[in-house]
Every structure is written in structure tokens, then in C-alpha cells.
Specification:
By secondary structure, this protein is of the alpha/beta class. The chain contains 17 helices and 13 strands. It has 2 domains: 18-178 and 368-382, Rossmann fold; 183-363, Rossmann fold, CATH 3.40.50.2000.
Length: 401
């Protein structure tokens, strides 16, 4: 007498057994515990993107919220600050039971064996890494039960290409930007917390992470040009610039490099996960190509772009998004001119106002109300009625030097 192996069982039966096991898992969870939600965080930026959602769920006694990362040390400090929680390694969560898995990045999903539902929310709109149309990439978006889109244009592209199904696609907006769009930050309070003169003009330097970007070409020189032109300077690097892999940081310790240019009362390097507070505290933005550039349009303040010719190719940026951002900004090619150009743009701050407001509306669906739509998606997947009172967008965030 031989024993049947899994290979002897027809695929249809295996799927049925898997479905039965999931139904039993769900029944046990519903009967004996809270809904279990796992937020998977690839980097500190993901913490900022998902914070409005996990903070609201943490306030719901019916829900248990946990956090995971392929390298927990990469996000541990940000999670402790924003969620007062520890971070699990992917190996620790594979066989645990989860009612819902949530991510802001499709690349590093763990192979969860006992997960009922899943949702992905986009972490940006800049069009990097071919994410505006990833038809040729193995992104795995078809694995998610829901995919929350920031704007209608990208959602329409994914639907037309068959990357996501009509059932999975949901137009949400960008919860991370809600508080910024609603004017929920005090610029003077943030400046004081950073030790900056509240009466001096403040420039934010927030470059993208690519080794082909402005940080690698002229980062310190750009900061010096702004400082020498009379600005307070806030330096906010993309979290991936701190990643040790050469494709992200080129092996450079950018934290130490930017810490070294700090000057009490004038130049500060911030490493918090969310850029929103320092955007609100600044009068002008300097970047190359990044989602921060598009988000800054929500404030309708001047933007200066440092031109790095090879960035579009190296970072696989959608050329249409490059054109759009350049249409609302002033382009500068020399690092010693950045400060002068920034001052000039402030002197005529209304010059591109209409274009900035139009681009903000195009890129961020329903800015200021996205968190409510995102939570509606999550509660629907959890099969729970939404609580009557929700946390204000970003209400738990802090900003410190």
C-alpha cells in the first residue's frame, strides 16, 4: 500500500483544501481574537506612507496591528517613533495567521502561508522604476486583493494593461499628503523644534535617491549655495539614500556626509521618515526629480529643480512626469546658482501658481480626504464596520532634529 503525496492530488483538490484551511483559520480568528493586520515596511518612507492607516487601526480595539520588514533594523527607529511597536523579520511572520497584509511596495513581499486578504498602496507618483507602467516587470500586483491608486491616470493604465483587475483597483489618493494638504502643520513650531530662526527664509533640499541624482553630483555644494544666499537649509534625504547597497547609495555614508554640513541655527539634516513637516516649514523646495516635488505643489510654493541629465535613464523615470514637474519649477544647471535662483523664485512666487495647483489636482486624487478612503478599503477587507470616530490624518506625527 502506498501513501499519496501532494503531487498525486489534483490541483483543483489542492486549491479546495487550501480554501478550506483558510476558512477554518478565519473562523478560529473571528471566534477567539482580534483581526490581525500586518504592515510590511520596505524602508522608512513606507512608514510615512502607511502611517495614517496603521495609526487609525491601532486605535481600534478590535484590531491587532503588527509590523514586518525584510531587514527590521532598517525601519525599527521610525516604527518606534510613529507606532510605539517592534518590527518582526519576514521569517517570523510567514506561518502566523493574518487577516490582512498591507504594503506600500510590491517588491519584497514575504510568502505568507496563512493570510486571508492583502492590499497595496502606492508610495509615490514620480514615475520612477517604471511604476507608471510596469508591464514588462514582474511586480506581482495581481496577488493583491486591493490596490489603492493615488490618481486616476495610473489606475487607468494598470487596468488597460491588465496589471490589476477592475475588482482590485481602487482610487484612493495619497493618505500621507492629507495633513499637508489640510494645512495641519505649524511652520514656526517645526522651525523652532529644529533650532532654526523662524524669521529667516527656509529652503528644503530633498533630492531623490538615485546615484545619478543631484545628491551624488553636487549635494554639499547645493546646500552651501542655499546657506550662502541667506536661507535656513533643511536637508531631507530619501530613506533609500541610507541603504548600503551600491545601486541606492553608491556605497556612500550619506548620513555622516549630511550630518557634517550641519550648522546650528542655519543648516539641519533631518532623518524622520515623513517629509511633510519639513515641506510645511519651508518657503522653497530644491530637488531633482522626486514625489516630494509633486507633493510640494499642494502647498503652491516655488520649486527649483537641479538638472542632472543622466537621472531619467538611470532611475527609469517616466519622461512625461519629468516634463510635468519641470512645467511647475525653475531649472538650474550650476550648483553655485541654486541659492540665487531660489531667492529669485521667491521674489516672484506667484509666477507658476496656477500650474502648480493644476498639477497637484492631477497627481493627488481628493487631497485631504484620502485617509478615509484608504481605511474604508481596509475595513471592507477585514469585514468590520468602520468606527464612527477616526484619527485625524497624521495626528500622531512629530518632528525633531
Amino acid at each position: 500500500m502506498t501513501t499519496a503525496t501532494s503531487r498525486d492530488v489534483p490541483s483543483e483538490m489542492r486549491r479546495g483544501l487550501t480554501g478550506s484551511a483558510k476558512r477554518v483559520d478565519r473562523a478560529i480568528g473571528r471566534a477567539f481574537g482580534r483581526r490581525r493586520v500586518l504592515f510590511d515596511l520596505r524602508n522608512a518612507m513606507n512608514v510615512a506612507v502607511l502611517q495614517p492607516m496603521f495609526s487609525a487601526l491601532q486605535g481600534d480595539h478590535r484590531v491587532h496591528v503588527a509590523f514586518a520588514c525584510e531587514d527590521p533594523g532598517r525601519v525599527a527607529a521610525a516604527v518606534r517613533q510613529e507606532a510605539a511597536a517592534d518590527v518582526l523579520a519576514h521569517a517570523e511572520v510567514i506561518w502566523q495567521r493574518w487577516d490582512l497584509y498591507v504594503s506600500a511596495d510590491p517588491w519584497t513581499r514575504p510568502r505568507l502561508r496563512r493570510c486571508l486578504q492583502s492590499a497595496n498602496f502606492f508610495h509615490g507618483v514620480a514615475g520612477n522604476s517604471n511604476l507608471d507602467d510596469p508591464s514588462a516587470l514582474q511586480t506581482g500586483f495581481d496577488w493583491f486583493d486591493r490596490v489603492g491608486f493615488i490618481n486616476a491616470e495610473r489606475m487607468d493604465t494598470y487596468l488597460k494593461r491588465g496589471i490589476v483587475s477592475a475588482e482590485a483597483a481602487v482610487l484612493v489618493g495619497f493618505p500621507k499628503a492629507d495633513r499637508l494638504a489640510l494645512g495641519g502643520y505649524s511652520a514656526s513650531q517645526i522651525k523652532r523644534s529644529l533650532g532654526l530662526d523662524t524669521h529667516r527664509m527656509t529652503a528644503l533640499y530633498a533630492p531623490g535617491w538615485s546615484p545619478a541624482g543631484s545628491l551624488h553630483v553636487a549635494g554639499e555644494q547645493i546646500v552651501a549655495s542655499l546657506r550662502n544666499s541667506g536661507f535656513n537649509v533643511i536637508v531631507k534625504l530619501h530613506p533609500m539614500s541610507f541603504h548600503p547597497a551600491p545601486q541606492y547609495s553608491d556605497g556612500i555614508d550619506w548620513r555622516s556626509r549630511m550630518d557634517a554640513v550641519q550648522e546650528p541655527g542655519r543648516v539641519v539634516h533631518v532623518i524622520e521618515s515623513d517629509s511633510s513637516p519639513v515641506m510645511a516649514a519651508s518657503d522653497v523646495l530644491v530637488t531633482d526629480h522626486s514625489t516630494v516635488g509633486f507633493e510640494y505643489c499642494l502647498l503652491d510654493r516655488p520649486i527649483v529643480l537641479f538638472d542632472v541629465p543622466d537621472l531619467v535613464r538611470m532611475a527609469r523615470v517616466n519622461p512625461d512626469q519629468v516634463t510635468r514637474l519641470r512645467g511647475v519649477a525653475r531649472l538650474v544647471c550650476r550648483n553655485d546658482e541654486v541659492g540665487f535662483v531660489a531667492r529669485d523664485e521667491l521674489a516672484q512666487s506667484n509666477r507658476l501658481s496656477a500650474a502648480r495647483r493644476q498639477l497637484a489636482a492631477r497627481m493627488f486624487y481628493g487631497a485631504g480626504t484620502a485617509t478615509a478612503r484608504a481605511l474604508a478599503v481596509l475595513y471592507n477587507l477585514l469585514e468590520l464596520p468602520r468606527p464612527e470616530v477616526q484619527a485625524r490624518p497624521g495626528a500622531t506625527r512629530r518632528c525633531s532634529s
